[in-house]
Amino acid sequence: MIRMLCKTAYDGTEYSGWQVQPNARTVQAEIESALARIHKGRSVRIHGSGRTDAHVHAHGQMFHFDTELDIPAEGWRRALNAGLPDDVLIRSVVPVDPQFHARFDVKKKEYRYRVLLAPEADVFRRRYTLYMPHKLDVERMRQAGVSLVGTHDFSSFCAANASAADKIRTLFAVDVIENGDELMFRLQGNGFLYQMVRIIVGTLLEVGTGRREPNEVSAILHGRDRTLAGKTAPGHGLFLWEVSYHS
Questions:
Q1: pLDDT tens digits, residue range 177-217?
Q2: Exposed (0-12), middle (13-18) or buried (19+): which is 162, by Cβ within 10 Å?
Q3: Kindly report the CA angle at 124 between 120 and 125, in degrees rounded to 5?
Q4: Exposed (0-12), middle (13-18) or buried (19+): which is 116, by Cβ within 10 Å?
Q5: What is the pTM of this model?
Q6: How many CA within 13 A on the CB side of residue 14?
Q7: Taking the mean position of all CA atoms in its chain, how far away is CA 225?
Q8: Using an 8 Å Cβ cutoff, are 185 and 205 in contact?
Q9: C-alpha span between 69 and 39 (Å, rounded)
């Protein structure tokens, strides 16, 4: 068997998330369906670097699969894309060691969250940005984000129904970047809990609107209680941007 590692981008608008679910359209199901056709009906399971929720997008989601077919990497990319819908794209395919795992070998992930700050909503960006009609104080959000960098127990920034027992993660960077009429939150870490990025963004937005003080975020973090943090930001502004397997 040969193990292949793939990078994929997708528009999550019309999906119920990455992971296969009964009676729901998912990215994993679409890719596995395309692989089954290439393997003449035989089921092939893919293993992603992680899951994304409903309406969340990806610029660089990674997954691997095992196959007995001897097809060149570029041939795999073309064959998969020929069988996938227009909102899913295989960007690259490379062979890897049979012991490699797309999830367990991850060293760093980067997520980006886009917020639109224009005077009015934009119908052409409504699927990819959160529209905020309120004025935001960027410096206050940057100050608040500093306290999240490092290795911490992120229980306060994790969905209450999350299954992970270990909620300690390391964030390498929490950046708030101004880009024209958009604001981008960029978070880099060694791993992320269920809805962690969206809860952090939702909390920082409350700091930006003046509903919270920047120093409250440190207290929220150390309180280890989801009820202390802000609302979960909607999924459609979030992108899984990059997954790295090197330190």
A1: 999 999 999 999 999 999 999 999 999 999 999 999 999 99
A2: middle
A3: 75
A4: buried
A5: 0.96
A6: 7
A7: 23
A8: no
A9: 8
Question: Are 162 and 193 in contact, with CB atoms under 8 Å apart?
Answer: yes
The DSSP line for 85-99 is: -TTEEEEEEEEE-TT
> Beta strand 108-116 with 238-244: parallel, antiparallel or unpaired?
antiparallel
For residue 222, what are its two tokens?
A: 């150390």
What residues are labeled active site? 53
The stretches of the chain forming alpha helices (DSSP H) are 27-38, 73-82, 138-146, 196-208, 216-223
Number of neighbours of residue 42 by Cβ within 10 angstroms:
11
pLDDT tens string 224-237 = 999 999 999 999 99
Q: What is the pLDDT of residue 60?
A: 98
